[in-house]
Design a protein that fits this description.
By secondary structure, the chain is mostly helical. 17% of the residues are buried.
């Protein structure tokens, strides 16, 4: 070794290896967080699209029922009848296009039918946990909607959404009191004396 030159120290490979492992761990954690955020954003987007598409089809079912000629069924047997309703002349189009379920990518909706087999609503086949908790469509009776498949999109003309008949003594849908309630009010009115002013 020439005089006056310092010996070259060997590189600290162990320290470099630890730094590299630390950087890789930080990168993996960051990528995991980004993946979770991306998945959440995708879920919210699909839920919003499901609400839009389901409500569009439910509204089309309502228009189909409202445009029913006398003596014709008020609910279609297939969703394609919403695209080309030939019950009258000229044919009507109640739905612009047949929407696919955003969770499956196909128009494989679960159809809800009335006693005559007509379609009165639908819902998704998806079983993903629903993140949205407000402004939701009708859910199954007595159940909190846990999955997006629990969101039922029903037409206003569906028997499932019809108001129950008024009970005895309760006001009817027109807002008038029931017979028993009207009789009770009349009897109470006869028993009360008008208030006298001094």
């Amino acid at each position: 070794m020439p005089t006056g030159e310092r010996p070259v120290a060997p590189p600290r490979r162990g320290f470099t290896y630890l730094v590299l492992l630390f950087v890789l761990a930080l990168g993996a954690a960051g990528l995991g967080g980004l993946a979770t955020q991306w998945q959440a954003a995708g879920q919210r987007e699909r839920e919003a699209e499901l609400l839009f598409r389901g409500s569009q089809i439910a509204q089309a079912l309502g228009r189909y029922a409202a445009a029913t000629p006398a003596g014709q069924p008020r609910a279609p047997q297939g969703l394609d009848e919403l695209l080309d309703d030939r019950r009258s002349t000229p044919p009507q189009q109640h739905l612009r296009r047949l929407y696919a379920d955003p969770f499956s990518g196909h128009a494989d909706w679960v159809l809800l039918r009335d006693a005559q087999g007509g379609i009165v609503g639908l819902h998704s086949r998806a079983t993903q946990r629903a993140w949205r908790r407000h402004a939701l469509p009708v859910a199954m009776p007595g159940r909190q909607p846990a999955s997006v498949g629990d969101w039922h999109f029903l037409t206003d003309h569906s028997p499932q959404t019809a108001a129950p008949p008024p009970t005895e003594g309760a006001p009817d849908p027109s807002g008038r009191p029931g017979e028993a309630e009207a009789a009770a009010e009349a009897e109470a009115g006869n028993d009360q004396n008008p208030r006298r002013t001094p």
